[in-house]
Amino acid sequence: MSGSTSYHAGLAAEDSVARHYGLAGYRVVARRWRGKGGEIDVIAQAGDDTIFIEVKKSDSHAAAAARVSDHQIRRLFDCAGEYMGTLPNGMLSSVRFDVALVDAVGRIEIIENALTA
Predict the structure, then answer these.
(1) How far apart are the first and last CA of the chain?
(2) Average pLDDT for residues 74-97, to the nearest whole number?
(3) PANTHER family from the entry (predicted)?
(4) Is the pLDDT of residue 30 over 80?
């Protein structure tokens, strides 16, 4: 897959995941939110809870899961901390980190609370 094709496939996967969360009753509050240290793919709200979602696309869910690196997890935590500074309860806010896996045919598997700080 070329760089451009891969980039656009990733964007399409993020769109699908955002739609999936919206249909499940979450309010998607940000897409591709950029902080100083990187980007969070999707941020959603459910009541007072904020959910940071890392989206991974590959041929299979297992292959997508294998693409979540330690470096990406650290970046996600750093960006989430920065984003939490904008929330009313700051660093005391209730948050969770989900990983959304998208396979080659567009099936989505959500792993809730996949990452812990």
Answers:
(1) 33
(2) 93
(3) UPF0102 PROTEIN YRAN (PTHR34039:SF1)
(4) yes
Domain ranges (residues) in the chain: 3-115
| Fold of the domain built from segment(s) 3-115 | Trna Endonuclease; Chain: A, domain 1 (3.40.1350)
Question: Is the pTM for the entire model greater than 0.85?
Answer: yes
The span from the CA of 15 to the CA of 84, in Å, is 23
Inter-residue contact 21 to 44 (CB < 8 Å): yes
pLDDT at 5: 55
- The rounded distance, in Å, linking the Cα atoms of 20 and 32 is 16
Helix (H) or strand (E) holding 116: none
The DSSP line for 45-98 is: EETTEEEEEEEEE-SSHHHHHHT--HHHHHHHHHHHHHHHTTSTTGGGSEEEEE
